[in-house]
């Protein structure tokens, strides 16, 4: 029985990066032997065990065979006869197909270390094309390691194109897709994830609404980069540079979907794109069963981001409606995330990445002015029920008028 560290733990150690997750594979052992040593079984699809003292995962070396469509369409076989090399060949990329023992002796049958040094993401074997999830995984690794200069090997990109054209991506579950998408969006270069998916044709299959933005022009006076798809990538890039949470990054990706519906004869203007995009945002949210907080913010940013940009021009009554839409009294954080998404949108323009965004502080001040309107004096005056709501609204509007007058004087 031999135990090896495999996958990301080996890869990141060789790259000089922090090692967070450690996967271990056990060669030469049976399920019975693992149980006899006190390991606890947890794997339903293949033999994975928890160490009796540390609780860390240990998986028996295994082979796999394609038996159906999609990520789950595989039959696994584990036995003491399965070699380390046989276990490693079923992995996705050469840089993930290395193993090391406790003395840091490296087993690298598929030249992962060479590809690490060459900064190449390359598939291990033709079996790569049997698992559609690997298209998303490779794009995610491209986003993670873009800052180190990694690119996808041409032959691997060819296999990803084949998978995209095969219809296999449609067999992915919403849960598995969202897990990869959400992890990729939180990488340092999420825009690379979207670009790689587009380059291999997967974006058209998974998010045609986003793919449709490429080649759609916008007015050069507001958008020097012109292309809506490139703008979306830039907005995502800014959201990562400024360490925004997943909710904001997801909203940044979807905020301009309505522009993909604008008839060509109306280009480069996109009248009412905020409203035409809402159904598209809903469709993408539902397709991937996106968490509620991400869904809600994406819809609100899609609908109101131009309000954010025009904040200093808005009438007090429109400003109040905006604040009410976000329920700033009970959910102040959501409005803060909206402001962040608007700022990322403004920064995601060629040559304007460092321009200040005074709308942010203006909107925060407006929210503060509205929140500071006290309810108690109105209760003491006898207002209650719907009358109290109307009175509160009048007082908040009065406060916003005073705020706007002072702030824009």
Automatic annotation (TrEMBL):
GO terms for biological process: RNA repair; tRNA 3'-terminal CCA addition. Keywords: ATP-binding, Hydrolase, Magnesium, Metal-binding, Multifunctional enzyme, Nickel, Nucleotide-binding, Nucleotidyltransferase, RNA repair, RNA-binding, Transferase, tRNA processing. Mg(2+) binds at residues 21, 23. It catalyses: a tRNA with a 3' CCA end + 2 CTP + ATP = a tRNA with a 3' CCACCA end + 3 diphosphate; a tRNA precursor + 2 CTP + ATP = a tRNA with a 3' CCA end + 3 diphosphate. GO terms for molecular function: ATP binding; CCA tRNA nucleotidyltransferase activity; cyclic-nucleotide phosphodiesterase activity; magnesium ion binding; phosphatase activity; tRNA binding. Nickel for phosphatase activity. Magnesium is required for nucleotidyltransferase activity. Pfam families: HD, PolyA_pol, PolyA_pol_RNAbd. Its cofactor is Ni(2+); Mg(2+). ATP binds at residues 8, 11, 91, 137, 140. CTP binds at residues 8, 11, 91, 137, 140. Comprises two domains: an N-terminal domain containing the nucleotidyltransferase activity and a C-terminal HD domain associated with both phosphodiesterase and phosphatase activities. A single active site specifically recognizes both ATP and CTP and is responsible for their addition. Catalyzes the addition and repair of the essential 3'-terminal CCA sequence in tRNAs without using a nucleic acid template. Adds these three nucleotides in the order of C, C, and A to the tRNA nucleotide-73, using CTP and ATP as substrates and producing inorganic pyrophosphate. tRNA 3'-terminal CCA addition is required both for tRNA processing and repair. Also involved in tRNA surveillance by mediating tandem CCA addition to generate a CCACCA at the 3' terminus of unstable tRNAs. While stable tRNAs receive only 3'-terminal CCA, unstable tRNAs are marked with CCACCA and rapidly degraded. Belongs to the tRNA nucleotidyltransferase/poly(A) polymerase family. Bacterial CCA-adding enzyme type 1 subfamily. Monomer. Can also form homodimers and oligomers. This is Multifunctional CCA protein.
């Amino acid at each position: 029985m031999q135990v090896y560290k495999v996958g990301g733990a080996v890869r990141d150690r060789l790259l000089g990066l922090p090692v967070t997750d450690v996967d271990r594979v056990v060669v030469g052992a049976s399920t019975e032997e693992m149980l006899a040593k006190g390991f606890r079984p947890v794997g339903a699809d293949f033999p994975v065990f928890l160490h009796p003292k540390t609780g860390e995962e240990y998986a028996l070396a295994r082979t796999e065979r394609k038996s159906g469509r999609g990520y789950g369409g595989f039959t696994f076989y584990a036995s003491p006869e399965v070699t380390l090399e046989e276990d490693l060949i079923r992995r996705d990329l050469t840089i993930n197909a290395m193993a090391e023992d406790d003395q840091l002796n490296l087993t690298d049958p598929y030249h992962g270390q060479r590809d690490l040094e060459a900064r190449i993401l390359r598939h291990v074997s033709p079996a790569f094309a049997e698992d559609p999830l690997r298209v998303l995984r490779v794009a995610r690794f491209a986003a993670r390691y873009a800052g180190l200069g990694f690119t996808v090997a041409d032959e691997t990109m060819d296999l990803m194109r084949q998978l995209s054209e095969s219809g296999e991506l449609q067999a992915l579950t919403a849960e598995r897709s969202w897990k990869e998408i959400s992890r990729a969006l939180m990488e340092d270069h999420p825009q690379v994830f979207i670009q790689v998916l587009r380059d291999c044709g997967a974006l058209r299959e998974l998010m045609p609404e986003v793919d449709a933005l490429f080649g759609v022009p916008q007015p050069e006076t507001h958008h020097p980069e012109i292309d809506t798809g490139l703008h979306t990538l830039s907005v995502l890039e800014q959201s990562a540079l400024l360490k925004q949470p997943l909710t904001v990054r997801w909203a940044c990706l979807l905020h301009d979907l309505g522009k993909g519906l604008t008839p060509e004869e109306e280009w480069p203007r996109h009248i009412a794109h905020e409203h035409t995009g809402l159904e598209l945002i809903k469709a993408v949210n539902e397709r991937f069963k996106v968490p509620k907080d991400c869904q809600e913010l994406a819809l609100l940013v899609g609908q109101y981001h131009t309000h954010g940009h025009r904040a200093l021009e808005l009438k007090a009554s429109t400003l109040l409606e905006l604040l009410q839409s976000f329920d700033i009294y009970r959910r102040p954080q959501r409005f803060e995330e909206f402001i962040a998404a608007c700022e990322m949108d403004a920064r995601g323009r060629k040559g304007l990445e460092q321009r200040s965004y005074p709308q942010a502080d203006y909107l925060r001040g407006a929210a503060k002015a509205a929140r500071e309107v006290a309810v108690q004096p109105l209760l003491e005056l006898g207002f209650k029920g719907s009358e109290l709501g109307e009175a509160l609204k009048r007082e908040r509007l009065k406060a916003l008028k005073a705020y706007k007058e002072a702030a824009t004087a």
